[in-house]
Amino acid sequence: MYRRINEILENSLKDIKRILPLFFLASLVSTIIDFYVSAEIVYSVLGENLWVAIPLATVIGIVLPIPRYATYPIAYALYLKGAPLSIIFSLISGEVILGAPDRDVMEFKFFGAKSYFLRFILCTIFVIIGGFIMEAIF
User: Fold this and answer.
1) Cα atoms in the 13 Å half-sphere on the side-chain side of 52
2) Which residue has the higher pLDDT, 54 or 15?
3) What is the pLDDT of residues 18-43, one digit of tens each?
4) pTM of the predicted structure, to 2 decimals
5) Domain ranges of the chain
6) Burial class (CB in 10 A: 0-12, 13-18, 19+), 36
7) Residue 127: what pLDDT?
8) Upper half-sphere CA count for residue 103 (Cβ side, 13 Å)
9) In angstroms, how far is the first alpha carbon of the chain from the final one?
10) Quick check: 57 and 46 in contact, CB under 8 A?
């Protein structure tokens, strides 16, 4: 019984050691955005031409090298600076297109590269469409 509790505590500490630095980095980036990036800059990059901004936010979300939980503070900081909800939706949804490396490896192994790239392309297209739907609704 005590060995199982000890194992759970050790695994929890390992997770905290991995998560905490990334979450700190995301919080740091969101604070920098909050203090040093003006609303005009955010709006000029992400708000003026939504035909460019929504696909751009999707691509940024895809290539952002941080996990989902670290994307939220950055997305919130952008939202506070005036980025539309459609951009926030596209950023966060784009981030989940590429999953964890272990999931991607399993997908390659069991379904092949063709399936993986088809899912990647279709998900990207649907996230962009979803961003435009969000813009139309909100």
Assistant:
1) 7
2) 54
3) 778 877 887 788 788 778 877 777 77
4) 0.74
5) 2-137
6) exposed
7) 95
8) 5
9) 53
10) yes
